[in-house]
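COMPLEX REQUEST
Ligand: zinc ion
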Amino acid sequence: MPSPAKFTEFIDANADKFIQRLADAVAIPSVSSDASRRPDVIKMAHYLDGELKLLGVETKLVDLGTHFMQEQTLQLPPAILGRLGSDPKKKTILVYGHFDVQPASISDGWNTDPFKLVIDEATGRLYGRGSTDDKGPVLGWLNVIEAHKSLGLEMPVNLRFCFEGMEETGSEGLDDLIKEEVKKGKDGYFDGVDCVCISDNYWLNTRTPVLTYGLRGLTYIMVTVSGPAQDLHSGAYGRAVHEPMTDLVKLMSGLVRSDGKILIPGVDEMVEPADEEEIKMYNSMDYTIDDIEVSAGAPVALSSDKATVLMGRMRYPSLSLHGIEGAFSGVGGKTVIPAKVTGKFSIRLVPPQTPEKVNPLIFSFLESEFAKLNSKNKLVVESGHGGKPWVADFKHWNYEAAIKATEAVYKKTPDLTREGGSIPVTLTFAESLGVNVLLLPMGRGDDGAHSTNEKLDRSNFIEGTKLLGTYLYEVAAIAA
Ligand SMILES: C[C@H](N)C(=O)N[C@@H](Cc1c[nH]cn1)C(=O)O
Ligand SMILES: [Zn+2]
Ligand SMILES: [Zn+2]
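STATUS: Structure written out below.
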């Protein structure tokens, strides 16, 4: 059942208004990983809650308590639960999204203020932090509701919402909230949910829409090496003391090879290799080496074989080195020996890996490698946030509905992909509710989520909004 013509016409006619709403959201710098921005994440929760209420959604802000971060106790941003419609004859879809964003500043290399939505009229690109991850998609759902309310159209399904403000920093408190809400049964917001839809990832390229049935998990690790009581002069102490940075760089360089092979014994080995049939599936996707190199901005793909690159991103684990806290990184040539340095890296996990299975391998490898250095420095290894990988059954009516909706809006059959990124709460929804979860992305593969100059194409925002609405009609049609 396609969406009514007047719905899609309304979306086109109100595109500028929707873009203004996205601009208002982008203007709130809701960076969850930065303690000084926490009031903005909370402000963003209230902004979104207000917009939902104006559209007739019954909402509840859930206090998730406090947590300790950057040496202070901080209030967690509230989660937003919402309910629209309770018709027992209709299917009920739970929508999840997040209103926090990654850090961004002009000094990182942005061409424009990251927290001011800039519209490039020539290309149709909407630049701003959170435009594609995940404020654009979250507002897409609001646009759908606004269209129905303004047109006096009945919603084809019941909707439930769960929006959070800590996704980029480990989704603290959300698993417990979901489990509590499920326990409440009839009195909870998730009662009667038939399926879940999440719009929080991206197409593989700039041409072909995708539906996503898998996500990698994550384990984040901090390795601290310390020794001297304070930073030292390298002329006075160089080659005379054990240097923390030298030890740390040795440890970090032993974690992964330049070709991506993970060197921690047992980690890569946990994953079965792909068989011929699976490799065929990767080869059939609309994807080229150019797609990854254009979006990365340089010819840096690990292989010229498309299936190898896709499998590296979707079905094998990857280890990335992120940075070293405490190391000298300013301009100029400061000749210091840092006293304490913390290396940060993460591994994206795939089934059957979990943080519980992989962390002991990481810890014992780092400890035994450190012992080989015969250093008098001190090593501390800590695990940060993490999450399990998730893979869904895509032979399900939820996916069938999304395929039909994509064909109706984009006139193309979507590719079925697994996402390299992580949304840890996805598995919690799947397991706690026992229902199918679908990822229905709005943005393109070159949007630059988490990167400088993040953007969402105007057409993806508008057609993506139509897609979300049309998907609701297709679910309703399957139910009928
Ligand atoms: C795919 C989703 N939009 C996303 O970006 N998820 C993040 C989650 C995360 C984990 N640590 C920090 N953020 C990701 O995959 O990096
Ligand atoms: Zn993100
Ligand atoms: Zn996201």
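REMARKS: The mean pLDDT is 97. The chain has two domains: 5-215+389-477, 217-271+316-387.
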